[in-house]
Amino acid sequence: MGAKVQPKIPDDVDEGRRRRRRRARGAMVEINMTPLVDVMLVLLIVFMITAPMLTSGVAVDLPEAASSPLPGQDEPLSVTVDAKGKIYLQESEIALDQLAPRLQAITGRKPDARIFVRGDKGIDYGTVMSVVGAINQAGFNKVALLTEAPSGRAARTASTASPAR
Predict the structure, then answer these.
(1) For labeling, which of 7, 24, 70, 96 is most exposed (least CB within 10 Å)?
(2) Are 35 and 108 members of one domain?
(3) Which family is it part of (predicted)?
(4) Which CATH number covers residue 149?
(5) 138 and 92, same structural domain?
(6) Are 163 and 112 a contacting pair, CB within 8 Å?
(7) What is the pLDDT of residues 105-151, one digit of tens each?
């Protein structure tokens, strides 16, 4: 008995068998990037449109000053004096004599709460200082005056105000 001779199989039939074996082992997985990129672009556009709408508050023309930003992790309270001399706590108008009790109620009488004072640059300096004085008399010692950065930069900076005593 001799060795059996196997017939020659054409190359194209042999290729088909290899492909079937490969498919039987596992499917080739490919990630289609086009839908992912489409979704990311839509999200980018949505955030670009909504981000400017999220910044709300009282419109104030802040003065310019060269100072470094204050470090801090907690969200500060904002007291604003507009061009007409009206005082706002966050976004609600408030009288000067009601400012200290309202601040104490909001902060839970914590004297280390950060308070930013924004005063319109056209307003009388004494009006802004009376607001800062009322805040200091209420026992708050972390009071800062917000200003615009000079030379057209849009970033806000804060400079610390010394306690009015």
Answers:
(1) 7
(2) no
(3) Belongs to the ExbD/TolR family.
(4) 3.30.420.270
(5) yes
(6) no
(7) 888 777 778 888 888 888 888 888 888 888 888 888 788 888 777 76
